[in-house]
# Entry
Amino acid sequence: MEGHTVRKSLRTLIPLAAAAIPLALLPTAAHADSGTSYQTTLNPINGSGGSGMATVTVNGDQATVDLNYTGLATTFGGNPYPHVQHIHIGADGVCPTMGADKNGDGIVDTVEGQPSYGGIGTTLSTKGDTGPSAGTNIKVAPAGGSADYHRTFTLNSDTMNALQSGTGVIVVHGLDPSTLSKKAQNEKSNLVPSLPLAATAPALCGSLSSMPTGGVATGYGSTGGVEDLGLFAVGGGLAAGGAALFASRKRAASKAS
Ligand SMILES: [Cu+2]
# Structure
């Protein structure tokens, strides 16, 4: 009886062992527990003159956001200028062009931009609530012309789904009123009517896209060639091969410029 049981076990184990070999060669499966990173460059809109970078790293339901910006409006009514910032979701996942300025005041206001980037999914607040309802609370917004924001919090499922589908967009709000047209300077915010338009109009925008572990942008592997084949040959080589590929492309780019 015992011998029969052992042979039976071996018959089940051998196919399992065989199946495990190809799994080890899959580059992505091994990174499931190290999180997924989404990154973007924050580009100026509405002539804000600012710039920045943002990374959202998701582990389970936890998100760690690192966001820095510089060159935005510094003061508002004598105080450090509050810049509310959000992950917008639920639309095209892109930043608006000036063509989105429907009322012709020279500013793409927050609502005019929504067909591109959607509504607020997550508020990147400095403390407390990170839901959409905290979106216009300037007391929990980073303040001043530059900021270095870092926070880990529980990510809501709507924002999680948007990140995974490539439709998450980071928007940092708040323009220097003196840079607006006279018409725009006299308008009220369509988010918070007690505030001027400038206070909530978008200043920086960036569309989040996922990065494989190792920090290589998706899309670099799509042009074909020997390097790209090397990326997928052996699972353990992904990070190193990807970094080398990225470096070689960067060298090529800097030579060309
Ligand atoms: Cu926003």
Remarks:
- The longest helix spans residues 2-25.
- DSSP finds seven helices and eleven strands in the chain.
- Residues 106 and 181 are 7 Å apart (CA to CA).
- The first strand starts at residue 36 and ends at 44.
